[in-house]
Amino acid sequence: MTGLLLKDIHKSYGAVDVIHGINLDIKQGEFIVFVGPSGCGKSTLLRMIAGLEEITGGDMFIDGDRVNDVPPSKRGIAMVFQSYALYPHMTVYDNMAFGMRIAKESKEEIDRRVRSAAEILQLTNYLDRLPKALSGGQRQRVAIGRAICRDPKVFLFDEPLSNLDAALRVATRIEIAKLNEQMADTTMIYVTHDQVEAMTLADRIVVLSAGHIEQVGAPLELYERPANLFVARFIGSPAMNIIPSTISATGEQTTVTLAGGKSVTLDIATNASEKGKKASFGVRPEDLQAAQSEDFLFEGTVSIVEALGEVTLLYIEGLVENEPLIAKIPGIPQVNRGDKVRFTADKAKLHLFDAEGRSYRA
Ligand SMILES: Nc1ncnc2c1ncn2[C@@H]1O[C@H](COP(=O)(O)OP(=O)(O)OP(=O)(O)O)[C@@H](O)[C@H]1O
């Protein structure tokens, strides 16, 4: 059975098109995360699924039913917002019960659902409190509890953790992961700016840019095999190093000449027609290792050392003008500003993109 099907979904505000034909097949019980730069249309897409924005073109199906013209309350969807939107004068219990009272559920059913949601979210001891007597994380859990009580088929989250401090974000993220396990049949769609949330929560991540999909895939698939430069740069932090290059030999393996003159051979097959073409060579900061021999990938001069304890970031000048490469080295290496360093990387971890930005590996 299909959880959710988006077919050529378009959205425009007046003459301005913001969503340009989204096709997406989301299975029941899947946890889908939308990521992308500010303004790419994540919230608009989520709000169209919720029924809070009109769909300009295309068809949307929930459990096989076309819902384009179905009002929000009839879609079997619950949404959790960034601002918790709790009623300040109502207790936690009443906040969670509110929607069910409006829907004229029986007292017993309301009590059963509120207590079960409170149990899942560890809110049982707070049911009599007012929101003002709760921490930000607890308030967000009440907002999630209120959504659970509606027993939705689809659960939508619009950046639910972005108002929380770092420690609470982690704790609440883990609550959401547990919730996803406990509500295994409920489809969840989650919008975030946070890479860690996307990587840890998602079954599949949808990377959006300027109103279209760049790539859909499991988190590690996107990390290891980005389909294009946009995804390569977007997933991973610090971002993948990209070095302009020219293809100098093709075949089972491909050799490129990097800006700066060094040649590198990659285990990526290319056609003879690619010879001489411009390409972008990519390597992630964490995939660079200090080279012990003459067999190095590139060398340069360290301009900045950022020691974070667990890892150290080295900014290395000398390959592409005004664009330092970043190497992420475990621990605290004995390296200082001004040192000359050489790096290498595992061949399987090297990336190559054509002049249009498409990966040669895909
Ligand atoms: N009511 C509106 N009228 C006109 N344009 C709008 C309206 N709402 C959103 N937009 C535009 O639609 C585009 C997508 O906005 P949306 O809020 O969906 O992006 P987003 O990816 O969620 O961004 P952010 O990460 O900053 O929240 C933006 O260019 C925005 O300016």
Automatic annotation (TrEMBL):
Q: What is its main location?
A: membrane
Q: Where in the cell is it found?
A: Cell inner membrane
The entry lists its GO molecular-function terms as:
ABC-type maltose transporter activity; ATP binding; ATP hydrolysis activity
Q: Give membrane topology per the record.
A: Peripheral membrane protein
Task: State the superkingdom.
Answer: Bacteria
Pfam annotation, one family: TOBE
Among SMART domains, the record links this protein to: AAA
Does the record bear Ligase in its keywords?
A: no
* UniProt-listed SUPFAM superfamilies: MOP-like, P-loop containing nucleoside triphosphate hydrolases
Q: Does the keyword Iron apply?
A: no
- List GO terms (cellular component aspect): ATP-binding cassette (ABC) transporter complex, substrate-binding subunit-containing; maltose transport complex
Assigned keywords, A-Z: ATP-binding, Cell inner membrane, Cell membrane, Membrane, Nucleotide-binding, Transport
What family classification does the UniProt entry report for this protein?
A: Belongs to the ABC transporter superfamily.
Question: What is the protein's name according to its record?
Answer: sn-glycerol-3-phosphate ABC transporter ATP-binding protein UgpC
Which organism is this protein's natural source? Sinorhizobium mexicanum
Q: What is the lineage of its organism?
A: Bacteria, Pseudomonadati, Pseudomonadota, Alphaproteobacteria, Hyphomicrobiales
